[in-house]
Amino acid sequence: MLTFEWIIGLLLASVALSALARRVKVPYPAFLAIGGMLLAFLPSGPSWALEPKLALALFVAPVLLDAAFDTSLRDLRNNWLPVSTLVLVAVGVTTVAVAVVARWLRPDMPWAVAIALGAIVAPPDAAAATAILRQVKLPYQIQKILEGESLLNDASSLLIYRVAVGLVAAEHMKVREFVPSLAVALLGSLVAGFLFARVWMMITRRITEAPSAIITQFGGTFMVWIVAEHIGLSGILTIVAYAITLARTAPARTSARLRVSSYTVWETVIFVLNVLAFMLIGMQLRPIWSGLDDDVRFKYCTFAAAVLAVVILARILWVIPYGAFLRALKAQGLLPAHVIPAVPSLRRGIVVSWCGMRGIVTLAAAFALPEAFPYRDLILLTAFAVVFGTLVIQGLTLRPLILALNFDDDNPIAREAAHARTAAFRAALDEIDGDPSEEAEILRLEYRAVLLRAETEPDGGVATSELPADPIRRRAIAAARQALLSLRRTEAIGDDAFHQVEEELDRAELSAEA
Known about the structure:
By secondary structure, the chain is mostly helical. It has 2 domains: 404 residues, Na+/H+ antiporter like fold; 101 residues, no CATH class. The protein contains 21 helices and no strands. The longest helix has 38 residues. It starts with a helix and ends with a helix. The relative contact order is 0.13. About 1% of the residues have low confidence.
């Protein structure tokens, strides 16, 4: 009973912290980190254990799927250069820099352990960055770069992490022995993710009841991760490929009622997983901290502070010179035409370099280390310090920094959504054209008003209709939805505009079914 009471209390406290974070306009993971730190030093707090091998599957798999499902392949392709350099080079630079500093401070730490620590703290967190980006107006390209990075850098860092942990476990195995199997795992993971998605859609296509469908969504996510890990593939890449494949085909097969329900449940579960991650890592820190004497505590804190400084500086020292180098090449006319749009300005480089908050993936990776892993206690404490430090230092100052840089309003999503809205409701009008009934005439008047609003107010949405439900409306909405799906397939609109108009059509469809 006591455990249940603690769970209820901590969940309610996290809701209060989240509300406070929204009120002061900071990312809610920053306040969760503060809550986790307080829990770590609460003498009478709970002490719960979680199997380390379960941590990555429980925390990372659903978070990755949620992020990958909303990822736009068009925007990833258009911003491939900055995204790939952040995913590969920035993560690699951070990992190496942290490993070098760790070895300098603790010369007896094996290189594989130091590299594992670097990979754990290397990937920035998607939830923290998204919480900030929703509160301010950033240029569209920066948003897409940061979203693409937050999705793919988990894969690159956790692949390094997997190799480093494997080297520690194998002791005498060399890196070159991992390379062939790793290359096969990379390609195999992408293929497996695609095949898993196709098979899963065939199995679940007749499940239309919301509770059953949502349970199978989560069950499928965990099954894909577990199977991929058991057969030697990368769970990260498999889940990303699985989610992107689902995202391209699920909208045409899913009803509005099921989609609205599942989106709400997924958003809630991701929030709860963030809460659990910070709670559990806080509980792990309490026995570690209490078991250290004052001299060792000082050494551990010095080590963690040094790693935090390296994590922040490594990103800045890569992003700013990278932008300056590209601008110099552009000034000399040495860049290909297709690369020029990806050249960042100094202001954009400053924002990207400061968007380095760490979060749930770092916590889960640290927690997932085997119990007997060398320096596990130090790594756990350091990982939490990096997450806490970046969320507080960068998370609390990012919004004022963006406002101070005063970016121009750049909102292509509104323009694309207006274009999609126009095409969708023209298709709806064509569908009911020629119907002589009074209901059809009322519907035509309504949709003409929507078209006029889309052309004159591109930033506006579509209000849910209050007209009576009827089959004509449902038929028109189905035609509008097909037009919207066609625009997405041809990449005339991006995924952001697609989901915005899809939500409007879902509300209209639910109203028509009332």
